Amino acid sequence: MVTKKMEEAMNNQINEEMFSAYLYQSMSAFCETKNMEGFANWTAIQAKEEMSHAMKIYRFVLEKGGNINLQAIKAPKVEWESMAKMSEEILGHERHITKCIDDLLEVAREEKDNATQNMLQWFVDEQVEEESNADAIVQKLKMIGEFGAGLFMLDNELKQRVFVDSTQNK
Q1: What is the largest CA-CA distance in the chain?
Q2: Phi, psi of 150, deg, nearest 5
Q3: pTM for this prediction
Q4: Spatial CA neighbour of 45 closest among 119, 136, 134
Q5: pLDDT for 56-97, tens place per residue?
Q6: What is the spatial distance between Cα 83 and Cα 98, in angstroms, rounded to a whole number?
Q7: Are 91 and 131 in contact (CB under 8 A)?
Q8: What pLDDT does residue 45 have?
Q9: What is the tally of structural domains in the chain?
Q10: Which of 11, 27, 42, 159 has its CA 20 to 30 A from that of 87?
Q11: Does 67 map to a domain?
Q12: 141, containing H or E segment
């Protein structure tokens, strides 16, 4: 059984993950308008990942006998100054989500909820990967600049990404 405090914290995290999906989908739409197909692909796949993360928590709460309380999702930004600025925002957002997961894990520790602590370890590991991937794009953009052949090549590289639902690998 999940405690009320844990249930509330998990519902808040579901909202964070769904907002992340909204944010990445908004970024994907923006990239489409700029003919940046690779960035559009990368962020669209990121949106799918974030929704799968939300659903992983959703299913877990229900499995533990908790209730789901879906909250309003705030509207994301719709425009960015450049691919570099957008990528920096992605990295900042992933760092925010890492802090949210860390805070959620702290609640699980306080509540002595070992099952939730165990499940959240997957998210801890996932956030290391998320931050690393976002930082790699930021660093590449710093190296190549915001315009020209380098940006074109990076956009083509990002086009190759495919969605794999890693939440299914327990």
Answers
A1: 56
A2: -60, -45
A3: 0.93
A4: 134
A5: 999 999 999 999 999 999 999 999 999 999 999 999 999 999
A6: 22
A7: yes
A8: 97
A9: 1
A10: 11
A11: yes
A12: helix 114-144
Residue 166 belongs to some domain of the structure:
no
Residue type (1 letter), 163: F
- Residue, of 101 and 170, whose pLDDT is higher: 101
**Residue whose C-alpha is closest to residue 59's, from 14, 100, 118:** 14
137 token code pair: 């794009």
**Per-residue pLDDT tens digits for 13-68:** 999 999 999 999 999 999 999 999 999 999 999 999 999 999 999 999 999 999 99
Range of the domain at 133: 4-158
**Predicted confidence (pLDDT) at residue 170 exceeds the cutoff of 80:** no
76 in any annotated domain:
yes
Residue 110: both structure tokens together? 């306080």
**Concatenated DSSP letters of 31-99:** HHHTT-HHHHHHHHHHHHHHHHHHHHHHHHHHHTT------PPPPPP---S-HHHHHHHHHHHHHHHHH
Task: Confirm whether 88 is domain-assigned.
Answer: yes
C-alpha to C-alpha distance for 3 and 26, rounded to whole angstroms = 34
Q: Which two tokens stand for residue 96?
A: 């925010």
pLDDT value, residue 169: 62
- Residue 72 and residue 163: Cα distance in Å, rounded? 26
Domain at 81, CATH number = 1.20.1260.10
Q: Are 3 and 65 in contact (CB under 8 A)?
A: no
